[in-house]
Amino acid sequence: MNLTQLPLLEQAVFVIAALALMASFALLAQTRLTASIHSFAWQGASVALVTALVASINGIHHLYLSALLTLALKSLVIPWMLHRLVRRLEMEQQVESITHPALVVLTGAALVIFAYWVALPIERLEMAGTRNIIAVSLSIVLLGLWMMIARHQVVAQVLGFMSMENGLFLAAVASTRGMPLVVELGVAFDVLVAAVLFGVFFFHIHESIESLDVDRLNRLTEQEQQP
Amino acid sequence: MSPAGWGLALVQTLLFLLGAPLLAGWVKRVKSRLQNRRGPSLLQPYQDLGKLFAKEALMAHSASPLFRAAPYIVFGSTLVAVSIIPLLAVSLPTAAVADVIVLVGFLALARFFLALAGMDVGTAFGGMGASREMLVSALAEPAMLMAVFTLAMSAQSTNLSSVVQFNLDAGLALRPSFMFALMGLVLVAIAETGRIPVDNPATHLELTMIHEAMILEYSGRHLALMEWAAQLKLMLYGVLISVVFLPWGIATRMTPSALALAFGVLILKLMVLWLVLAVTETGLAKMRLFRAPQYLNLAFLLTLLGLFSHVMLEAGT
Amino acid sequence: MSGPSFLPLAFTVFTPLVGIILLALMRTLALAGWINLALAVVEFLASLVMAWGVMEQGTLLAHGFQIDSFNVYLVVLTTFVGLTTAIFSRPYMAEVCAQGRITRQRMQLYHSMFQGFQFTMLLALTTDNLGVLWVAVEGATLATVLLVSLYRTPESVEAAWKYFILCGVGIALALFGTVLVYFAAQQVLADPENGLTWSVLYAHARELHPTVMAIAIVFLLVGYGTKVGLVPMHFWLPDAHSEGPTPVSAVLSGLLLNVALYAVVRFKMLADGALAASTMPQVAGHLMMGFGLVSFLVAVLSLQRQRDIKRMFSYSSIEHMGLMTFAFGMGGPLATFAALLHMLVHSLTKSAIFITVGHASHIAGTQSIERIRGLIRTQPSVGWGLLLGVAAIAGFPPFGIFTSEFLVLSATMQSWPWLTMLLLTGLVTAFAGLFRNIHPMVYGAVPEGQVAVRANMLPIMVHMALVLWLGLAIPGFLSGWLNEVTLLISGKGML
């Protein structure tokens, strides 16, 4: 199905999904903490916008509520909480050093290709019109996973985790027109609680190892420990 | 191959030649106004070029024949490059050779000789400028080609006229691939034409120069040709972006009314584009050179995303 | 409707919800311990009533919950182990608090989250909606994350962080698998809103698109498999199970792993139906067998190198979960019956062992294997408890684990004979590793100044008695129950 044959709103869905993917890359390569949090907020906003567009295209009214929930949670509340934490831990000016930023981004690109390959059999089935967004959302999930692996700052890992949730939400919205409201509320609640717990953890980690660099969390090994 | 078509092609080239200094003057004027100065008149670049042509061309005694030939080669290849771009109409006889890869090739040829000329006399600044230029262009080429490929994949051809025609026929279509390709191409254009934030065209500090450092040893008509070639290159990129991504207004038929409309719309588009350029140049600061690779990686990433968007989202099975 | 009453189910699942709020507000610590215990008793009795109702009147399907033969015995098991752990935890945690290792506020958190954990597990076991299943399993992770880091030592914070991140990632992948299943369901169901209802999906399993289900089952296996502790997603397990307080280790090892495996098997049932007519009908089963076998072998080998007693038993948990996954993957009535029985006895034995280990480390003042010595002389009940527990978990007859492992080996010999050698070697190696470490701990020379502690051995004795009973003679109603589940999962009953 050619892009130009679709109505304008559906084209807009594609554009905004691509912007969410770009935000994922921005999160991956961005070393400044406050800029990362802003990229995450933009990603949340674009996912909410996609939800609203899908709701208006298909006339599903509970999706508007989900869109509002996503916007409030992922674009406003969680970035605000992270900002507050960063301020309290006095890490605003910190810049993380990624060893090979170009390599990290290129691996991300390779992951996007891999996600597309995985989603190809689903795409080939003559099903929903927004089926291709499964590939984009799987890319966002894998990029979030890669971000958690490649970055060793705790806040960056949390952002990677949250952006995985963004990708999952996008998959649910675009391919299945949103999950039942009960499930979405449950998922949103879980995400909120997870964010709160992450915040609590930052303090514990900071207290115990005086930094938020995960490479320093290395006491639990199976090597010979001094009795 | 009608004579009217060839005549129009010639007119297009002349428009480029004459319009480039005017646009350079327009950018300077807007920047000055933004900086609260009155600025030079719009015709100042013409006067500068005229003055330079009248002066004697001095050369260092260590200069080789390449140094003497380089301005003509650079100017010549840039002129050929601009002559194949569809400025006013799509269905010109030059359209047959208006292949984007050919365009990139001509620009690469110009850049190659420019760099050689910079190194030719053996001064430190010339060599420094040449190596910097090569760094920037080596990283910008993949991004530009990726944007070109994205466009070509959508239009099923690398011919510029076909791409423009395809865009015209598609009407208003929101393509993520085009949006990303546009963003990437804009970043590449700024790098290739040596504007802020990659290179400051008005700098007089040699250690911050990229393009100016290579033409530092030229004078008289040679310098005039080099400056003119730079202005042509800037106009080339501007026209490329406005014609490929915002093609509405371009003449598909050879009637005088369509051509007049095309001319008017083109002037409008270029003025707006140059206004945006002037505003960004005033607002941003020049980056340190070692950050240029990061900037170009961003451009590459954007164009790569454009390609991904095309393959994943737009190409149906 | 003509099924059993919904009321006992409501009591079972929603009592802990009340408990969360109640215990979060309860300031008196002693009272909190008793209330926790009381709630556990209520949950257990309610689950027994519900189980009896389901046994008499068949599957209960109401208000988005579904109790069939598979989850009814898991629910009873969960509430039972919750009860015995609550009995154990009341004096134990009071002692811990008195020692000053943990503040009063954190005790409130502990009790509240204990009930929270119960709630999420029971919700996961009883819900009919696959999305709610996901939410509940994630909720269980969140409830226990704070419990693992309860002592706030750097090691426990690190363990909890690892747990949070690894399980969070795994669960996210499982959500993607769930979305894919929903996607497949929407294409074939008349009412797409039912796309996440397991009972409806199971009825229409054959119509689901095989390719989509195959991709989904991979994600689901990796995702929920992380919570089961399958290799290579198991790195959180030894840390999380060894750093938390003892009651938390007991329920994590005994119950949460079962819930995750339950989720995997539910999805496997769907995938088997969908893929039955495709070109690769066994892909879900074979994947489970592969993961299970690898987990079993890696755990058995890692067991040998452990220096911390709780980590050693955590690897034993991975070993047994691997064995269960392998058996479920094999399919067929014999293996499925064996795996179900194994879920039951492993849960009972492992929680008993962790409680005993808690006492042992309390006596010795350390968790290091090298420094725990002479338990049987210092406190015979603990020493004997540990010895019998290890004998049970290693598969000694007449304990129940011997029965289930024997059945697994028989099933393997029937369908995959050359894998039997691997399994046997693994079992013997695990046995050797465990005993090599336990023997000096129980019989070695008593160090200076080691005294007996106040130990509540009742839960342990009850668990071990049950395991012994199940090993000697499985009661008729239980074997009938398990047979029904086997029928449900594998299509053929064993008895």
Characterise this structure.
The complex is a heterotrimer of chains A (227), B (317) and C (495). Chain A has helices at 8-29, 33-58, 62-88, 101-124, 133-150, 154-176, 181-209. Chain A has one domain (3-218). The termini of chain A are far apart. The mean pLDDT of chain A is 82. Chain A is mainly alpha-helical. Chain B is mostly helical. Chain B has one domain. Chain B is built from 11 helices and no strands. Chain B has helices spanning 3-34, 44-54, 65-83, 100-120, 124-155, 160-170, 176-192, 211-214, 220-245, 256-283, 292-314. In chain B, α1 packs across α9, α5 (124-155) packs across α6 (160-170) and α7 (176-192) packs antiparallel against α9 (220-245). Chain C has 495 residues and is an all-alpha fold. Chain C has a domain at 333-495. Chain C has 19 helices and 2 strands. Chain C has helices at 7-25, 29-57, 69-98, 104-126, 130-148, 154-188, 198-203, 210-228, 236-243, 246-275, 283-303, 309-330, 333-364, 375-378, 380-393, 400-415, 417-443, 458-472, 476-490; strands at 60-62, 65-67. In chain C, α3 runs antiparallel to α4 (104-126). Chain C is globular and about 70 Å long. Chains in contact: A-B, A-C.
What quaternary form is this? Answer: heterotrimer
Q: Given the structure, what is the number of helices of chain B?
A: 11
Question: How far from one another are the termini of chain A?
Answer: 67 Å
Weakly predicted, low-confidence segments of chain A: none
Q: Which structural class matches the secondary elements of chain A?
A: mainly alpha
Task: Summarize the main sheet of chain A.
Answer: none
Total beta strands of chain B? 0
Could you report the average pLDDT of chain B, rounded to the nearest whole number?
A: 87
| Total separate domains of chain A | 1
The general outline of chain A is globular
Query: Mean pLDDT of chain A, nearest integer?
Result: 82
Rg from alpha-carbon coordinates of chain B: 19 Å
Helix content of chain B: over 70%
Strand content of chain A: under 5%
Largest sheet of chain B: none
Number of domains of chain B: 1
